[in-house]
Amino acid sequence: MNLLNTLVDKGLRRESPTRGEALAVLATSDDDLLDVVAAAGKVRRHWFGRRVKLNYLVNLKSGLCPEDCSYCSQRLGSKAGILKYTWLKPDDASRAAAAGLAGGAKRVCLVASGRGPTDRDVDRVSDTIKAIKEQNEGVEVCACLGLLSDGQAERLREAGADAYNHNLNTSEATYGDITTTHTYADRVDTVHKAHAAGLSACSGLIAGMGESDEDLVDVVFSLRELDPDSVPVNFLIPFEGTPLAKEWNLTPQRCLRILAMVRFVCPDVEVRIAGGREVHLRTMQPLALHLANSIFLGDYLTSEGQAGRADLEMIADAGFEVEGADQVTLPEHRVAAGGGCGSHEGSGCGSHEGPGCGSHQGGGVCGPAAAPAEEPASAPAATGNEPRTDLVSVRRRGAGTDLAPNA
Fold first, then answer.
1. In the chain, fewer beta carbons within 10 Å around the N or the C end?
2. Has residue 87 got a pLDDT over 90?
3. Which letter, b or e, does each residue of 202-215 get, where b requires 16 or more Cβ atoms within 10 Å of its Cβ?
4. Which is the catalytic residue, given 124, 272, 334, 395?
5. Catalytic residue among 44, 51, 65, 124, which?
């Protein structure tokens, strides 16, 4: 297929595809799907080999968000039966982080629901970052706290944060359809603030909210222009009790095409499979590793994910390897560019290899939170893209509970 040969050549040169080429990837047939995966896989392996970076989410403050993001289980008016609790103490957050690091994660993503942090909140998170770094040598920390005010990114950087996550989620044209309490421009501004403070920027999207192919291409091209070091790709978790509970628009094949398109448009950045992979990719998760070079380990913010051990077995069985602490994630040209990840001596994902958070369907302004639990053995087989509510399980363990985390 000439299209795929062209896209591979462009990806190896870090050249952007055209909008028409990106749309064409999303329009390919299921008969061509393996060819699409193989082509995007060549680009992924060229820049990242067969390494898979593991990230671990710690939900510092869950629920009761004043924002109205339609996809989010923590939104204003949500009737989803999620855990609700106020700020974890630094030592509790550090213990939660240690569980993920023991399971193989390299980066801890600290997330709090809400529009954005107060200065007191920044102090709280700064104390938590310091505790985690003091108690876990070599860990990278990404913060995801919502919209930032002037000076807050710099304070987080001074406290030891390596990265900041803030997702664009969808195209500018349709943003007002999913959220009314803040704007697309607000989100872009926060990503710029993170960049300017020397934090590695992490920003991605949510697919499956009823958007068009054009919307998906628009948001990915906007992300390329923002130039984050990592791009999390979330697949909507249709939580009962949220406005998008009935939006079951994704198939495993569509998810793979979306990931391939992101890889072609952003060939040399860390592409992360984030919330919803278990719900929508299901048994085709291993194929997605040929497209993305990063995943979250274990549970998400408000829902349960595949067992941590199953994540590790999936990576090994698919012929990939977990990225080690001595390996640099990003290609040399991105590390040496001096912007964002890897530009700070002794920090950033270019130096320790850690991505950022960003898979939280349910995490307030910061983005979507939560992917579901693995399928029960007794669940009936499903076909097509019919709702798989059996795969959406509210998190009842880990941070904010007395039960051991899934890591």
1. N
2. yes
3. bbbbbbbbebebeb
4. 272
5. 65
Catalytic residue among 95, 157, 202, 263: 202
Mark whether 72 is an active-site residue.
yes
Measured CA to CA, the distance from residue 11 to residue 18 in angstroms comes to 12
How many CB atoms neighbour CB 137 within 10 A? 8
Residue-level pLDDT at 345: 35
How far is it, in rounded angstroms, from Cα 77 to Cα 254?
31
Q: Is the pLDDT of residue 375 over 80?
A: no
Catalytic annotation on 142?
yes
Burial class (CB in 10 A: 0-12, 13-18, 19+), 15: exposed
Look at residue 226 in the predicted model and tell me its pLDDT.
Answer: 97
State the first-to-last Cα distance of the chain, in angstroms, to the nearest integer: 41
Map tokens 């934090």 to a residue: 199
pLDDT in tens, 224-260: 999 999 999 999 999 888 889 999 999 999 999 999 9
The size of the chain, in residues, is: 407
